[in-house]
Write a structure and sequence with these properties.
single chain; 199 residues; alpha/beta
């Protein structure tokens, strides 16, 4: 069994240790459940770990799994797309960030590359604060993600990327969301009963 120091520090440039980590653990993590992947990440990387939410229902699943293992993961908004595989390129500006670039239309590869470079410069310091990032990406979401590994290296930022839901199918997501909704409804009902009894 490949042994890891805990916590394992991830350098800004890949070295023999990170290469060994990827070589051994990537195929191993494919056998793990999503909850086990997150527990492994917490045990291995500790405070170097953060979550980049995508404002999707998959985020709720990831956060629910973190709750199950009793870990409060830091969340950093607005950087999710930058942590995706380098084969993916955003083609639309995000209006909430004021990224209109003098009214240019996102219709060309040149504009898309400019958009990515602009975002990378804006958030590179934020991303480098954490060395290991959890993303909620699934292979079924897009053709460019269909071969996305659970554990990979981001060439853009020199950080590790972990996708615990990579293998999830649409049906599984729908079922889990129903389960989460039911748990929330039950918790809300319990709080109401407690408040009513206390009153």
């Amino acid at each position: 069994m490949y042994k890891l120091p805990t916590p394992l520090f991830i350098p800004y440039e890949p070295n023999s240790a990170t290469n060994d980590l990827l070589t051994f653990w990537q195929p191993e993590l494919e056998k793990f459940t999503s909850k086990s992947i997150l527990q492994w990440a917490v045990d291995t990387f500790d405070s170097q770990l953060a979550f980049a939410p995508s404002r999707s229902e998959e985020d709720e699943i990831v956060l629910s799994l973190f709750e199950e293992i009793a870990y409060r993961v830091p969340k950093v908004e607005q950087i999710y797309e930058l942590l995706l595989p380098e084969s993916w390129t955003p083609l639309e500006p995000r209006e909430e960030l004021g990224e209109t670039f003098d009214g240019r239309v996102a219709s060309s590869g040149l504009w898309a590359r400019f958009h990515v470079e602009h975002l990378c410069k804006r958030y590179e310091n934020t991303i480098s604060c954490y060395r290991v990032w959890i993303v909620s990406t699934r292979r079924e979401q897009d053709i460019v993600f269909e071969r996305m590994p659970v554990l990979s290296w981001s060439e853009r930022f020199g950080v590790l990327r972990i996708a615990p839901l990579a293998h999830w199918e649409n049906e599984g997501v729908a079922q889990e969301m129903e389960s989460i909704a039911a748990k929330k409804a039950e918790a809300s009902s319990d709080r109401f009963c407690f408040d009513h009894a206390s009153g």
